Amino acid sequence: MKMRLPHAFLILFVAILGSCSKESLDKTNIIEAKNALEVENELLDIVNVHRVSLGYTSLELSLVAYEYANDHNDYMITTGNISHDGFSSRASSIASAVNAEFVAENVAKDYVSAVEAFENWLASSDHKKTMEGNFTHTAVSVKKDPQGNLYFTQLFYR
């Protein structure tokens, strides 16, 4: 018999526990940056090719998760910091919207390409574990700040 943990336990998983300090986010004065669509699509393809090469399933794009990934990139651009701030709220919202039982995310900034972001995530055991995890859906948001720096948020769920 398979035992299922309550959603609350599963959605609290964070790929990197580093900077998850704030949960209540001030949404005033958030900058809405433009998406780098080519970089997003390339990163999604790279992650899926990697997963398939290891015998895992490719991940289906989730428009629900994409909205939350975009919002988080706008937040990080506004604060100028890479973070997992508000992850519990994002995860709960995604879980409620799509009946997900497990949500995780990878974030990054200042990489100049999808390949560089992927290679650095792959070199990090926590990020790698998330990319290769037991997930069915994903969303990749890549946005550019006013100085031209790229911010990356990839959400995963099953």
TrEMBL record:
- Residues covered by the SCP domain: 44-156
Top-level taxonomic group: Bacteria
CDD domains recorded:
CAP_bacterial
Q: InterPro entries from the xrefs?
A: CAP_dom (IPR014044), CAP_sf (IPR035940)
Protein's name according to its UniProt entry? CAP domain-containing protein
